[in-house]
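ok so i was messing around last nite and threw this chain in just to see what happens. nothing serious, just curious
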Amino acid sequence: MSGKCTLLILMASLLGAAAAQQTPQDIRFVFTGDIMMSRQVKAEVHYRKDSPWREFSGLFHGADLVGGNFESAIGDESECPRENSLCFASPESSAQLLHAAGFRFVTVENNHSGDLGEAGREKTREAFRQSGMLALDFDHSPQFLAFGNVTVGLVAITMVRAADGDVQQIPSVAVEQKLRLARQLANLVVVSIHWGNELQDWPADAQEQQASWLVKHGADLIVGHHPHVIQAPQCVQGKPVFYSLGNHLFDQKYAQTKDGLIADCRIHDGQLSCGGLRTRTGYGTSYPALAGRDTASDHALENCTPQLGPGLQVVDTTIKPQPWSADEPAEGSVLEGYRDGKLRWRSARRGLVSLQAARAMGSEPLLLSLERHPSSIDNEVGLRPYVYAVGGNGLIARWRGSALAWPLLDAVATSNGVLCALHRGDSFLVSNPQTGGTRIAAYRWNGFGFSGIDSPAVCSLVFR
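result:
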Protein backbone atom coordinates (compact mmCIF):
# COMPACT_ATOMS: atom_id res chain seq x y z
CA MET A 1 0.00 0.00 0.00
CA SER A 2 2.77 2.40 0.91
CA GLY A 3 4.51 1.53 -2.40
CA LYS A 4 1.38 2.41 -4.35
CA CYS A 5 1.01 5.66 -2.41
CA THR A 6 4.63 6.50 -3.10
CA LEU A 7 4.12 5.79 -6.82
CA LEU A 8 0.98 7.96 -6.91
CA ILE A 9 2.75 10.80 -5.11
CA LEU A 10 5.69 10.53 -7.52
CA MET A 11 3.38 10.55 -10.57
CA ALA A 12 1.46 13.53 -9.22
CA SER A 13 4.73 15.33 -8.60
CA LEU A 14 5.96 14.65 -12.13
CA LEU A 15 2.65 15.75 -13.65
CA GLY A 16 2.71 18.90 -11.55
CA ALA A 17 6.25 19.66 -12.67
CA ALA A 18 5.31 19.09 -16.32
CA ALA A 19 2.31 21.37 -15.96
CA ALA A 20 4.50 24.03 -14.37
CA GLN A 21 6.94 23.81 -17.28
CA GLN A 22 4.12 24.22 -19.79
CA THR A 23 2.64 27.25 -18.03
CA PRO A 24 3.72 30.34 -19.97
CA GLN A 25 5.84 32.72 -17.95
CA ASP A 26 4.58 36.26 -17.39
CA ILE A 27 6.61 38.82 -19.32
CA ARG A 28 6.92 42.48 -18.31
CA PHE A 29 7.88 45.34 -20.62
CA VAL A 30 8.41 48.96 -19.60
CA PHE A 31 8.90 51.87 -22.00
CA THR A 32 9.93 55.40 -21.07
CA GLY A 33 9.58 58.71 -22.88
CA ASP A 34 12.28 61.10 -24.08
CA ILE A 35 15.84 60.67 -22.82
CA MET A 36 18.28 63.48 -23.56
CA MET A 37 21.83 63.28 -22.16
CA SER A 38 23.25 66.54 -23.47
CA ARG A 39 23.21 70.13 -22.10
CA GLN A 40 22.30 70.32 -18.39
CA VAL A 41 21.70 66.57 -18.10
CA LYS A 42 25.28 65.93 -19.15
CA ALA A 43 26.52 68.56 -16.69
CA GLU A 44 24.48 67.10 -13.82
CA VAL A 45 25.67 63.54 -14.47
CA HIS A 46 29.27 64.82 -14.52
CA TYR A 47 28.77 66.79 -11.28
CA ARG A 48 26.87 64.12 -9.33
CA LYS A 49 28.87 61.18 -10.67
CA ASP A 50 25.77 59.07 -10.13
CA SER A 51 23.29 57.28 -12.36
CA PRO A 52 20.02 59.11 -13.10
CA TRP A 53 18.30 55.73 -12.66
CA ARG A 54 19.51 54.62 -9.23
CA GLU A 55 15.93 54.80 -7.91
CA PHE A 56 14.68 52.71 -10.86
CA SER A 57 16.95 49.75 -10.26
CA GLY A 58 14.26 47.46 -8.86
CA LEU A 59 11.77 48.28 -11.61
CA PHE A 60 14.17 48.12 -14.55
CA HIS A 61 16.15 45.06 -13.49
CA GLY A 62 12.93 43.28 -12.57
CA ALA A 63 11.44 43.76 -16.05
CA ASP A 64 12.12 41.55 -19.06
CA LEU A 65 12.48 44.48 -21.46
CA VAL A 66 13.18 48.16 -20.82
CA GLY A 67 13.20 50.66 -23.66
CA GLY A 68 13.15 54.41 -24.19
CA ASN A 69 13.49 57.11 -26.81
CA PHE A 70 17.07 58.45 -27.03
CA GLU A 71 16.66 62.09 -28.05
CA SER A 72 20.32 62.69 -28.89
CA ALA A 73 23.20 61.59 -31.07
CA ILE A 74 26.44 60.19 -29.68
CA GLY A 75 29.34 62.56 -30.36
CA ASP A 76 31.04 65.78 -29.34
CA GLU A 77 29.43 69.21 -29.36
CA SER A 78 32.21 70.40 -31.67
CA GLU A 79 30.72 68.13 -34.35
CA CYS A 80 27.40 70.00 -34.36
CA PRO A 81 26.73 71.89 -37.62
CA ARG A 82 26.79 75.66 -37.11
CA GLU A 83 23.33 76.04 -38.63
CA ASN A 84 21.82 73.66 -36.04
CA SER A 85 21.41 75.76 -32.90
CA LEU A 86 19.53 72.98 -31.07
CA CYS A 87 22.01 70.12 -31.37
CA PHE A 88 21.93 67.36 -28.75
CA ALA A 89 25.36 65.73 -28.76
CA SER A 90 25.74 63.20 -25.95
CA PRO A 91 28.91 61.45 -24.69
CA GLU A 92 29.61 57.77 -25.42
CA SER A 93 29.28 57.08 -21.70
CA SER A 94 25.52 57.59 -22.15
CA ALA A 95 25.22 54.13 -23.67
CA GLN A 96 27.01 52.49 -20.75
CA LEU A 97 24.86 54.39 -18.23
CA LEU A 98 21.64 53.28 -19.92
CA HIS A 99 22.82 49.68 -20.15
CA ALA A 100 23.87 49.63 -16.48
CA ALA A 101 20.46 51.04 -15.53
CA GLY A 102 18.71 48.06 -17.15
CA PHE A 103 17.75 49.41 -20.57
CA ARG A 104 17.91 46.81 -23.32
CA PHE A 105 17.09 49.01 -26.28
CA VAL A 106 16.53 52.62 -27.28
CA THR A 107 14.89 54.05 -30.35
CA VAL A 108 17.01 56.50 -32.31
CA GLU A 109 14.45 57.67 -34.84
CA ASN A 110 13.43 61.21 -33.89
CA ASN A 111 14.08 64.83 -34.82
CA HIS A 112 17.45 64.85 -33.00
CA SER A 113 18.82 61.51 -34.23
CA GLY A 114 20.38 63.26 -37.22
CA ASP A 115 21.91 66.21 -35.33
CA LEU A 116 25.40 64.95 -36.16
CA GLY A 117 24.55 63.70 -39.64
CA GLU A 118 24.91 60.16 -40.97
CA ALA A 119 28.28 59.72 -39.25
CA GLY A 120 26.60 60.55 -35.94
CA ARG A 121 23.81 58.07 -36.60
CA GLU A 122 26.34 55.30 -37.25
CA LYS A 123 28.39 56.27 -34.20
CA THR A 124 25.26 56.21 -32.04
CA ARG A 125 24.22 52.72 -33.22
CA GLU A 126 27.75 51.42 -32.73
CA ALA A 127 28.14 52.90 -29.23
CA PHE A 128 24.96 51.19 -28.09
CA ARG A 129 25.86 47.94 -29.83
CA GLN A 130 29.20 47.85 -28.04
CA SER A 131 27.40 48.35 -24.73
CA GLY A 132 25.17 45.36 -25.54
CA MET A 133 22.08 47.38 -26.45
CA LEU A 134 19.94 47.73 -29.56
CA ALA A 135 19.66 51.25 -30.99
CA LEU A 136 16.69 50.95 -33.32
CA ASP A 137 16.04 53.22 -36.29
CA PHE A 138 13.60 52.98 -39.18
CA ASP A 139 16.04 51.65 -41.76
CA HIS A 140 16.95 48.69 -39.52
CA SER A 141 13.35 48.00 -38.46
CA PRO A 142 11.92 45.64 -37.60
CA GLN A 143 14.24 44.01 -35.11
CA PHE A 144 13.15 41.02 -33.07
CA LEU A 145 13.68 39.96 -29.47
CA ALA A 146 12.72 36.58 -28.00
CA PHE A 147 11.28 35.89 -24.55
CA GLY A 148 10.80 32.16 -24.28
CA ASN A 149 8.28 31.26 -26.98
CA VAL A 150 7.19 34.89 -27.43
CA THR A 151 8.79 36.91 -30.23
CA VAL A 152 8.50 40.69 -30.09
CA GLY A 153 8.95 42.78 -33.24
CA LEU A 154 10.10 46.39 -32.78
CA VAL A 155 9.57 49.16 -35.34
CA ALA A 156 10.81 52.77 -34.96
CA ILE A 157 9.20 55.65 -36.87
CA THR A 158 9.50 59.44 -36.83
CA MET A 159 6.90 61.80 -38.23
CA VAL A 160 9.03 64.79 -37.18
CA ARG A 161 11.81 65.65 -39.63
CA ALA A 162 15.33 65.19 -38.30
CA ALA A 163 18.13 67.73 -38.76
CA ASP A 164 19.56 65.64 -41.61
CA GLY A 165 16.18 65.46 -43.35
CA ASP A 166 15.08 61.93 -42.43
CA VAL A 167 11.35 61.49 -41.85
CA GLN A 168 8.71 58.84 -42.58
CA GLN A 169 5.16 59.11 -43.86
CA ILE A 170 1.92 57.43 -42.74
CA PRO A 171 0.41 55.95 -44.79
CA SER A 172 3.29 54.73 -46.95
CA VAL A 173 4.46 51.55 -48.62
CA ALA A 174 7.71 51.59 -46.64
CA VAL A 175 5.99 51.66 -43.22
CA GLU A 176 3.41 49.08 -44.31
CA GLN A 177 6.18 46.67 -45.37
CA LYS A 178 7.91 47.02 -41.99
CA LEU A 179 4.66 46.22 -40.20
CA ARG A 180 3.85 43.31 -42.53
CA LEU A 181 7.21 41.69 -41.87
CA ALA A 182 6.92 42.21 -38.12
CA ARG A 183 3.32 40.99 -38.03
CA GLN A 184 4.18 37.79 -39.90
CA LEU A 185 7.16 36.83 -37.75
CA ALA A 186 6.34 38.23 -34.30
CA ASN A 187 3.70 37.44 -31.72
CA LEU A 188 3.69 41.06 -30.53
CA VAL A 189 4.41 44.12 -32.69
CA VAL A 190 5.53 47.26 -30.84
CA VAL A 191 5.77 50.58 -32.69
CA SER A 192 7.81 53.42 -31.23
CA ILE A 193 6.78 56.65 -32.92
CA HIS A 194 7.91 60.28 -32.73
CA TRP A 195 4.93 62.50 -33.56
CA GLY A 196 2.53 65.21 -32.43
CA ASN A 197 2.99 68.81 -31.32
CA GLU A 198 5.40 69.95 -28.65
CA LEU A 199 3.84 70.93 -25.29
CA GLN A 200 0.34 69.89 -26.46
CA ASP A 201 -1.16 67.59 -23.83
CA TRP A 202 -3.76 65.96 -26.08
CA PRO A 203 -3.27 63.94 -29.28
CA ALA A 204 -3.73 65.84 -32.53
CA ASP A 205 -6.21 64.56 -35.10
CA ALA A 206 -3.28 63.42 -37.24
CA GLN A 207 -1.93 61.26 -34.40
CA GLU A 208 -5.30 59.56 -33.93
CA GLN A 209 -5.59 58.87 -37.66
CA GLN A 210 -2.02 57.54 -37.81
CA ALA A 211 -2.63 55.34 -34.75
CA SER A 212 -5.68 53.78 -36.43
CA TRP A 213 -3.66 53.11 -39.58
CA LEU A 214 -0.79 51.55 -37.65
CA VAL A 215 -3.13 49.25 -35.74
CA LYS A 216 -4.96 48.28 -38.94
CA HIS A 217 -1.63 47.29 -40.50
CA GLY A 218 -0.32 45.21 -37.63
CA ALA A 219 0.71 47.23 -34.56
CA ASP A 220 -0.27 45.69 -31.21
CA LEU A 221 1.20 48.39 -28.98
CA ILE A 222 2.15 51.99 -29.81
CA VAL A 223 4.46 54.06 -27.62
CA GLY A 224 4.75 57.71 -28.64
CA HIS A 225 6.95 60.65 -27.82
CA HIS A 226 8.00 64.17 -28.91
CA PRO A 227 5.41 66.47 -27.25
CA HIS A 228 7.54 66.42 -24.02
CA VAL A 229 4.32 66.31 -22.00
CA ILE A 230 1.99 63.41 -21.26
CA GLN A 231 -0.87 62.69 -23.64
CA ALA A 232 -3.38 60.27 -22.13
CA PRO A 233 -3.32 56.75 -23.59
CA GLN A 234 -6.32 55.29 -25.39
CA CYS A 235 -7.53 51.89 -26.55
CA VAL A 236 -7.59 52.06 -30.37
CA GLN A 237 -9.36 49.16 -32.10
CA GLY A 238 -8.53 47.00 -29.09
CA LYS A 239 -4.82 47.95 -28.95
CA PRO A 240 -3.07 50.16 -26.32
CA VAL A 241 -1.79 53.48 -27.69
CA PHE A 242 0.40 55.72 -25.53
CA TYR A 243 0.27 58.93 -27.56
CA SER A 244 3.01 60.60 -25.56
CA LEU A 245 4.96 59.38 -22.55
CA GLY A 246 6.36 62.87 -21.95
CA ASN A 247 9.90 63.47 -20.73
CA HIS A 248 11.80 60.84 -18.82
CA LEU A 249 15.28 62.37 -18.48
CA PHE A 250 15.36 65.95 -19.78
CA ASP A 251 16.37 69.46 -18.69
CA GLN A 252 13.25 71.37 -19.75
CA LYS A 253 11.84 73.62 -17.03
CA TYR A 254 8.13 74.03 -17.94
CA ALA A 255 5.98 72.55 -15.19
CA GLN A 256 4.25 69.97 -17.39
CA THR A 257 7.56 68.76 -18.84
CA LYS A 258 8.56 67.61 -15.35
CA ASP A 259 5.90 64.87 -15.39
CA GLY A 260 6.55 61.63 -17.21
CA LEU A 261 4.72 58.37 -17.87
CA ILE A 262 6.17 54.87 -18.15
CA ALA A 263 4.17 52.36 -20.19
CA ASP A 264 3.98 49.29 -17.93
CA CYS A 265 2.91 46.26 -19.97
CA ARG A 266 2.61 42.56 -19.23
CA ILE A 267 1.96 39.40 -21.19
CA HIS A 268 -0.06 36.81 -19.29
CA ASP A 269 -1.82 33.74 -20.72
CA GLY A 270 -1.26 34.96 -24.26
CA GLN A 271 -2.74 38.40 -23.66
CA LEU A 272 -1.18 41.86 -23.47
CA SER A 273 -2.28 44.32 -20.81
CA CYS A 274 -0.87 47.76 -20.09
CA GLY A 275 -1.08 50.51 -17.51
CA GLY A 276 1.06 53.44 -16.45
CA LEU A 277 3.63 54.48 -13.88
CA ARG A 278 4.19 58.14 -13.09
CA THR A 279 7.55 59.86 -12.79
CA ARG A 280 8.29 63.31 -11.47
CA THR A 281 11.39 65.43 -11.95
CA GLY A 282 12.01 67.98 -9.23
CA TYR A 283 13.04 71.56 -9.84
CA GLY A 284 16.77 72.13 -9.96
CA THR A 285 17.43 68.61 -11.28
CA SER A 286 16.96 66.55 -14.45
CA TYR A 287 16.87 63.22 -12.58
CA PRO A 288 13.39 61.63 -12.55
CA ALA A 289 11.82 59.84 -9.58
CA LEU A 290 9.04 57.27 -9.45
CA ALA A 291 5.72 58.76 -8.36
CA GLY A 292 3.43 55.72 -8.16
CA ARG A 293 0.85 54.24 -10.48
CA ASP A 294 -1.06 56.38 -12.93
CA THR A 295 -4.63 55.37 -12.16
CA ALA A 296 -6.03 57.26 -15.16
CA SER A 297 -3.89 55.22 -17.58
CA ASP A 298 -4.69 51.99 -15.75
CA HIS A 299 -8.41 52.73 -16.03
CA ALA A 300 -8.27 53.81 -19.68
CA LEU A 301 -6.56 50.57 -20.71
CA GLU A 302 -8.04 48.05 -18.27
CA ASN A 303 -10.17 46.37 -20.97
CA CYS A 304 -7.60 46.79 -23.72
CA THR A 305 -6.12 43.28 -23.73
CA PRO A 306 -5.27 42.05 -27.23
CA GLN A 307 -4.30 38.45 -27.87
CA LEU A 308 -0.80 37.67 -29.07
CA GLY A 309 -0.43 36.87 -32.75
CA PRO A 310 0.16 33.27 -33.87
CA GLY A 311 3.50 33.78 -35.61
CA LEU A 312 4.32 31.96 -38.82
CA GLN A 313 3.51 28.25 -39.06
CA VAL A 314 3.98 26.30 -42.30
CA VAL A 315 2.70 22.71 -41.96
CA ASP A 316 4.81 21.30 -39.11
CA THR A 317 7.44 24.05 -39.09
CA THR A 318 7.36 27.23 -37.04
CA ILE A 319 9.41 29.96 -38.69
CA LYS A 320 10.95 32.58 -36.45
CA PRO A 321 13.39 35.41 -36.97
CA GLN A 322 16.82 35.08 -35.43
CA PRO A 323 16.66 37.45 -32.43
CA TRP A 324 18.76 40.60 -32.45
CA SER A 325 22.24 40.19 -31.02
CA ALA A 326 25.07 42.67 -30.55
CA ASP A 327 27.33 40.03 -32.11
CA GLU A 328 25.37 39.79 -35.38
CA PRO A 329 25.24 42.25 -38.32
CA ALA A 330 22.41 44.77 -38.18
CA GLU A 331 21.78 44.39 -41.91
CA GLY A 332 19.56 41.64 -43.23
CA SER A 333 17.48 38.90 -41.62
CA VAL A 334 18.03 35.25 -40.74
CA LEU A 335 15.05 32.89 -40.51
CA GLU A 336 14.98 29.83 -38.26
CA GLY A 337 12.83 26.72 -38.64
CA TYR A 338 11.57 24.86 -35.56
CA ARG A 339 9.84 21.50 -35.40
CA ASP A 340 8.74 19.85 -32.16
CA GLY A 341 10.21 22.82 -30.32
CA LYS A 342 13.73 22.23 -31.69
CA LEU A 343 15.77 24.33 -34.11
CA ARG A 344 16.05 22.33 -37.35
CA TRP A 345 17.54 24.83 -39.78
CA ARG A 346 18.72 28.40 -40.19
CA SER A 347 18.60 30.37 -43.44
CA ALA A 348 21.30 32.50 -44.97
CA ARG A 349 21.15 36.20 -44.14
CA ARG A 350 19.05 38.03 -46.70
CA GLY A 351 17.81 41.56 -47.35
CA LEU A 352 14.26 40.74 -46.30
CA VAL A 353 11.72 43.55 -46.76
CA SER A 354 8.47 41.62 -46.56
CA LEU A 355 7.38 38.03 -45.89
CA GLN A 356 3.98 36.46 -46.29
CA ALA A 357 2.45 33.02 -46.15
CA ALA A 358 0.94 32.48 -49.61
CA ARG A 359 -0.88 29.20 -49.14
CA ALA A 360 -3.44 29.85 -51.88
CA MET A 361 -0.85 30.40 -54.60
CA GLY A 362 -0.18 26.77 -55.36
CA SER A 363 -0.74 23.14 -54.43
CA GLU A 364 1.91 23.29 -51.70
CA PRO A 365 2.25 25.87 -48.88
CA LEU A 366 4.49 28.67 -50.11
CA LEU A 367 6.14 31.79 -48.78
CA LEU A 368 6.32 35.04 -50.73
CA SER A 369 9.24 37.25 -49.79
CA LEU A 370 10.36 40.61 -51.07
CA GLU A 371 14.13 41.01 -50.86
CA ARG A 372 16.66 43.64 -51.87
CA HIS A 373 19.19 42.25 -54.34
CA PRO A 374 21.40 43.67 -57.08
CA SER A 375 20.40 42.72 -60.61
CA SER A 376 21.93 43.01 -64.05
CA ILE A 377 18.44 43.63 -65.47
CA ASP A 378 18.27 47.21 -64.18
CA ASN A 379 21.78 47.62 -62.71
CA GLU A 380 20.44 48.62 -59.32
CA VAL A 381 19.76 47.11 -55.93
CA GLY A 382 16.04 46.67 -56.14
CA LEU A 383 13.09 44.84 -54.67
CA ARG A 384 12.82 41.27 -55.98
CA PRO A 385 10.02 38.77 -55.22
CA TYR A 386 11.06 35.25 -54.20
CA VAL A 387 8.86 32.20 -53.73
CA TYR A 388 9.91 29.50 -51.24
CA ALA A 389 8.64 26.13 -50.14
CA VAL A 390 9.56 24.97 -46.64
CA GLY A 391 11.53 21.73 -46.49
CA GLY A 392 12.95 19.63 -43.70
CA ASN A 393 16.35 21.29 -44.02
CA GLY A 394 15.35 24.84 -44.84
CA LEU A 395 13.80 27.08 -47.49
CA ILE A 396 13.56 25.73 -51.04
CA ALA A 397 13.55 28.41 -53.74
CA ARG A 398 10.71 27.80 -56.19
CA TRP A 399 11.29 31.11 -57.94
CA ARG A 400 14.36 33.31 -57.65
CA GLY A 401 13.61 36.95 -57.76
CA SER A 402 12.82 38.01 -61.30
CA ALA A 403 11.39 41.51 -61.07
CA LEU A 404 8.09 40.84 -62.90
CA ALA A 405 7.11 43.18 -65.73
CA TRP A 406 8.28 46.52 -64.30
CA PRO A 407 10.44 47.73 -61.38
CA LEU A 408 8.70 46.75 -58.16
CA LEU A 409 7.61 48.81 -55.14
CA ASP A 410 5.49 46.24 -53.32
CA ALA A 411 3.64 42.95 -53.80
CA VAL A 412 0.97 41.18 -51.76
CA ALA A 413 -0.49 37.69 -52.20
CA THR A 414 -4.27 37.67 -51.80
CA SER A 415 -6.40 34.90 -50.33
CA ASN A 416 -7.57 33.80 -53.81
CA GLY A 417 -4.03 33.20 -55.05
CA VAL A 418 -3.57 36.45 -57.00
CA LEU A 419 -0.31 38.37 -56.63
CA CYS A 420 -1.07 42.10 -56.59
CA ALA A 421 1.98 44.16 -57.50
CA LEU A 422 2.63 47.87 -57.17
CA HIS A 423 5.14 48.90 -59.82
CA ARG A 424 7.07 52.08 -60.44
CA GLY A 425 5.97 54.10 -63.43
CA ASP A 426 9.23 53.62 -65.34
CA SER A 427 10.51 50.48 -67.08
CA PHE A 428 13.63 48.33 -67.19
CA LEU A 429 14.43 49.69 -70.65
CA VAL A 430 14.20 53.34 -69.56
CA SER A 431 14.99 53.20 -65.87
CA ASN A 432 14.14 56.20 -63.68
CA PRO A 433 13.91 55.27 -59.97
CA GLN A 434 12.77 58.81 -59.14
CA THR A 435 9.67 58.61 -61.30
CA GLY A 436 6.55 59.76 -59.52
CA GLY A 437 4.09 57.51 -61.32
CA THR A 438 2.98 54.00 -60.32
CA ARG A 439 1.00 51.19 -61.91
CA ILE A 440 -0.82 48.18 -60.46
CA ALA A 441 -0.60 44.77 -62.09
CA ALA A 442 -1.83 41.28 -61.19
CA TYR A 443 -0.16 37.89 -61.62
CA ARG A 444 -0.95 34.26 -60.92
CA TRP A 445 1.52 31.57 -59.86
CA ASN A 446 1.83 28.86 -62.53
CA GLY A 447 4.10 26.46 -60.65
CA PHE A 448 7.41 27.79 -61.93
CA GLY A 449 6.81 31.53 -62.30
CA PHE A 450 4.16 34.24 -62.56
CA SER A 451 1.83 34.91 -65.47
CA GLY A 452 0.19 38.28 -65.94
CA ILE A 453 -3.61 38.41 -65.64
CA ASP A 454 -6.28 41.08 -65.77
CA SER A 455 -6.05 43.09 -62.57
CA PRO A 456 -9.03 42.35 -60.30
CA ALA A 457 -10.65 45.04 -58.18
CA VAL A 458 -9.05 43.58 -55.06
CA CYS A 459 -5.63 44.79 -56.20
CA SER A 460 -6.80 48.39 -56.26
CA LEU A 461 -8.09 47.93 -52.71
CA VAL A 462 -4.77 46.46 -51.57
CA PHE A 463 -2.80 49.56 -52.59
CA ARG A 464 -5.33 52.34 -52.01
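not much to say yet. Confidence is low (pLDDT under 50) at residues 1-23.
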